[in-house]
Design brief:
single chain; 108 residues; alpha+beta; 6 strands; globular
Length: 108
């Protein structure tokens, strides 16, 4: 049943030792999330920011945290071609486009 899928995903995510999930909060309220999945050459990341917190620096802070958590590793992120705001966010954080949807921050 559909209502249980997010809970199943969360349980699998929290149980997976190769995956890290962090919830960003503002004033105690969830504002965004970072998921890091270990890969052979670094990590694949996924971020989301609640629309109520767009344009407040939350996405940039989440990307900075990802870099701190995986120093010396490449970070990959999939960004949809039409998502200009996310493309600009990743570019400003030092990621470069290496594929139609793939942005990469090289080893730092």
């Amino acid at each position: 049943p559909a209502p249980h899928r997010p809970r199943e995903w969360l349980a699998r995510t929290l149980a997976d030792p190769s995956r890290l999930l962090i919830i960003a909060t503002v004033g105690g309220a969830p504002a965004g999330m970072l998921r890091l999945d270990r890969q052979t050459h670094g990590a694949r990341l996924n971020i989301a920011v609640d629309s109520r917190y767009h344009r407040r620096g939350i996405g940039a802070a989440i990307l900075a945290l990802a870099a701190l958590l995986r120093p010396g590793h490449a970070l990959d992120a999939e960004v949809l071609p039409g998502n200009k705001a996310s493309q600009a966010l990743f570019a400003a954080a030092g990621y470069r486009k290496v594929g139609e949807r793939l942005f990469r921050r090289e080893l730092a």
